[in-house]
């Protein structure tokens, strides 16, 4: 079985791409493949925004990533530089900025590009959405 890493660079509001990426991840899991990590970069960092409150009749992409993470036991890595540029902060950055609330919460975690590249050495396939 192959080991996969996904790279998400599109906004979650590009719903067709979001659904495709999540369906691909779910299919990997169903086939018994290993999904090592999902790295959110650029506009893709918005997928990790815990403050987005979607109406109940809309596609719940944030919760779907959480379910995929639970099923695959993979890392949901958010590029720290790209996230901060977009106002998305982990608890550490929020505290440093004197803000009471983080926008990036578990199971999403911030990581640098170097960490992502290091983890790619443990993967057979990288698929970008």
Task: Describe the protein.
Belongs to the DsrE/TusD family. This is Sulfurtransferase complex subunit TusD. It is found in: Cytoplasm. Pfam families: DsrE. The chain is an alpha/beta fold. It has one domain (3-128): DsrEFH-like (Hypothetical Protein Ychn, Chain: A, 3-Layer(aba) Sandwich). Helices cover 37% and strands 20% of the residues. The protein contains five helices and five strands. It has helices at residues 15-30, 61-72, 80-85, 91-96, 113-120, and strands spanning 3-8, 34-40, 75-79, 108-111, 125-128. A five-stranded parallel β-sheet has the order 4-3-2-1-5. Helix 1 packs parallel to helix 2. The two termini are 22 Å apart. The relative contact order is 0.24. The model has no long low-confidence stretch (mean pLDDT 95).
Keywords:
Sulphur_relay_DsrE/F-like, Hypothetical Protein Ychn, Chain: A, 129 residues, transferase, cytoplasm, single chain, alpha/beta, Sulphur_relay_TusD/DsrE
**CATH architecture field:** 3-Layer(aba) Sandwich
Count of helices? 5
Spatial separation of the terminal alpha carbons: 22 Å
Q: Please tally the β strands and state the result.
A: 5
Number of domains: 1
CATH topology call: Hypothetical Protein Ychn, Chain: A
Mean pLDDT: 95
How much is the radius of gyration in Å? 14 Å
State the order of secondary-structure elements, H for helix, E for strand. EHEHEHHEHE
The SS-based structural class is alpha/beta
What is the topology, as strand order, of the major beta sheet?
4-3-2-1-5
Query: In what range is the share of β-strand residues?
Result: 15-25%
User: So what's the overall shape?
Assistant: globular
| Major β-sheet annotation | 5 strands, parallel
CATH class: Alpha Beta
Pfam families: DsrE
Family: Belongs to the DsrE/TusD family.
Protein name: Sulfurtransferase complex subunit TusD
Keywords: Cytoplasm, Transferase
């Amino acid at each position: 079985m192959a080991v996969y890493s996904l790279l998400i660079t599109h906004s979650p509001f590009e719903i067709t791409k979001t659904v495709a990426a999540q369906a691909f991840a779910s299919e990997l899991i169903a086939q018994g493949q290993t999904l090592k990590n999902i790295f959110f970069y650029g506009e893709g960092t918005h997928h990790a925004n815990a403050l987005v409150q979607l109406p109940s009749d809309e596609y719940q992409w944030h919760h779907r990533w959480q379910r995929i993470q639970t099923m695959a036991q993979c890392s949901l890595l958010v590029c720290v530089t790209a996230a901060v540029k977009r106002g998305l902060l982990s608890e550490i950055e929020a505290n440093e900025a004197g803000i009471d609330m983080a926008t990036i919460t578990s199971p999403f975690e911030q990581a640098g590009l170097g960490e992502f590249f290091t983890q790619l050495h443990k993967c057979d396939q990288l698929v970008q959405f």
